[in-house]
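Researcher: Quick test of sequence recovery. Tokens follow.
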């Protein structure tokens, strides 16, 4: 490896450094339920029944003045939910499953906005949207794959595994071959890189009924004394995808794992991260950050996939043969993983779903998860202020004595070892830097919070958001929020509703709301704003946003997703 990455030397003697990893996890290590970023409110008892219309948004004039703290009455934030992006090809022939019907709606039209739907080549379900430095737009299309709208064009092109997408890692079989079994493709996150390049995140493969998830299959199979299903535990992760001059793709895979002999408590190797919810690219430090299940990771943005042959050594890690087994981090092109975890009342490790990533001015990184958030002091702790310090930053997030760097934004009922009933999961859905080093944090349920550079809550905002819902009986007030981004031109904040609304723009102490009058009632009533990013290539405002689309499990009705691009003031 090049580009200043220290792949060898004493800094990588992880066992000597006391990095114990997650070896003490037992079975399902998360101990948390899935939040419901795209779940129908009618299916989630924590969310008020919105029917097909958004709730009364009220007068809502309190942006930046404290808002309503919704985190005092919530319970565990998920019931499993509906996977809105399963491809939509099942016609519903199973008993009790309604037949699928696709709801059509007119393509919206509004000043300053341009829209794209399936008729223009967009996928049915849209999980993310980004632009590379050349102004090309890339779209995460779930099981349909990766989509591209080249600069200056108005239709989208589709790429799948047949074009080189690689949603699975490689085996230690001597050659780095693919895992046995059926591969699984589901593109759920994108981040633009250099011109023509995009970083792509995948979902891990769903397991067979009753079997462990991709997060737990590697560990659980050993405990059960059976062969691990590599098609599950090696699924997902991320790719660096570059469009070549002939229109084909060059794909480099990030196999987000740690091989044998590197972590003291997991000497056989570690396979925990598989589903990558968010990605952020730092062009100055030439690194890429992955927010996933269980934790987050850092990749070398210049990684070319060429690795030494010993990376695929098929021998057992504890072989006594000579030369002894060797594995180095250059085999993966990344370091993994870190999490601001806590312990539950039964001693279980609580850490999951890192949707929030925001890179600071000094190239530290804020990460936000379902349970806790953190500032990863990657550059602050760098001795030379040139190359970051991953390992010390990890200690500042995970070790004893650094509880202050594990932020509980919407506070649990007790500060330590909460039971499930005592938890108020933050369910962070996004992060975006604000002025003076502060960071905005969005929650799938509780609106916005603004933190100072040390992670202390400065204010919370709910009532000004387009989908604010007042408290109803035992259900707390909320504003389900699924995406947030800071405008690079004027510092205004663009906020996407998870349900019942559209987009709120916080600007100059006021709000601008884009709702059914812009997008139509079909998508604003039921579909989440899955992503908001900016095309920074042209020097003028170009906001990229996507409605995810959703399938109602009761009726079988599919509301397809929608892409919107805003080029107004």
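Model:
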């Amino acid at each position: 490896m090049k580009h200043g990455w220290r792949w060898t030397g004493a800094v990588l003697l992880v066992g000597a450094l006391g990095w114990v990893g997650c070896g003490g996890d037992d079975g399902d290590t998360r101990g948390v339920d899935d939040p419901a970023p795209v779940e129908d409110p009618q299916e989630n008892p924590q969310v008020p029944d919105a029917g097909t219309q958004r709730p009364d948004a009220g007068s809502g004039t309190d942006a930046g003045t404290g808002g309503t703290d919704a985190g005092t009455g919530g319970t565990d934030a998920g019931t499993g939910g509906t996977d809105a992006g399963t491809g939509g090809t099942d016609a519903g022939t199973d008993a009790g499953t309604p037949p699928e019907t696709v709801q059509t709606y007119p393509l919206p039209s509004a000043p300053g906005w341009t829209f794209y739907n399936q008729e223009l080549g967009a996928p049915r379900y849209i999980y993310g949207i980004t632009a590379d430095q050349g102004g090309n737009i890339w779209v995460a299309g779930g099981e349909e794959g990766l989509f591209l709208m080249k600069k200056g064009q108005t239709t989208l092109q589709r790429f799948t595994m047949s074009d080189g997408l690689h949603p699975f890692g490689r085996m230690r079989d001597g050659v780095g071959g693919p895992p046995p079994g059926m591969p699984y493709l589901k593109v759920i996150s994108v981040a633009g890189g250099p011109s023509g390049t995009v970083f792509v995140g995948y979902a891990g493969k769903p397991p067979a009924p009753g079997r462990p998830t991709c997060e737990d299959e590697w560990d659980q199979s050993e405990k059960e004394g059976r062969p691990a299903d590599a098609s599950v535990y090696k699924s997902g992760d991320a790719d660096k995808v570059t469009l070549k001059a002939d229109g084909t793709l060059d794909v480099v895979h990030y196999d987000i794992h740690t091989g044998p002999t590197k972590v003291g408590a997991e000497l056989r190797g570690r396979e925990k991260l598989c589903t990558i919810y968010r990605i952020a690219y730092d062009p100055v430090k030439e690194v890429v950050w992955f927010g996933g299940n269980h934790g987050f990771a850092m990749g070398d943005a210049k990684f070319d996939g060429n690795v030494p042959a010993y990376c695929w050594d098929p021998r057992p890690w504890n072989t006594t043969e000579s030369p002894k087994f060797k594995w180095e981090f250059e085999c993966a092109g990344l370091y993994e993983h870190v999490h601001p975890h806590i312990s539950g009342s039964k001693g279980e490790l609580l850490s999951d779903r890192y949707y929030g990533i925001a890179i600071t001015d000094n190239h530290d990184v804020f990460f936000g998860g379902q349970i806790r958030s953190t500032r990863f002091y990657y550059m602050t702790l760098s001795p030379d202020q040139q190359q970051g310090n991953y390992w010390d930053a990890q200690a500042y997030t995970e070790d004893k004595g650094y509880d202050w760097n594990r932020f509980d934004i919407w506070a649990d009922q007790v500060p330590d070892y909460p039971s499930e009933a005592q938890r108020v999961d933050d369910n962070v859905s996004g992060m975006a830097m604000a002025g003076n080093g502060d960071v905005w944090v969005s929650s799938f349920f509780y609106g916005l919070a603004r933190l100072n550079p040390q992670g202390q809550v400065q204010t919370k905002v709910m009532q000004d958001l387009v989908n604010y819902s007042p408290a109803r009986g035992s259900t707390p007030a909320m504003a389900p929020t699924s995406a947030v981004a800071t405008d690079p031109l004027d510092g205004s904040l663009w906020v996407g509703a998870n349900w019942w609304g559209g987009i709120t723009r916080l600007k100059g102490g006021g709000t601008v709301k884009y709702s059914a009058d812009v997008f139509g009632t079909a998508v604003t009533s039921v579909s989440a704003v899955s992503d908001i990013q900016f095309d920074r290539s042209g020097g003028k405002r170009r906001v990229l946003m996507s409605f995810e689309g959703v399938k109602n499990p009761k009726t079988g009705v599919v509301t397809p997703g929608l892409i919107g691009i805003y080029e107004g003031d």
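The radius of gyration is 22 Å.
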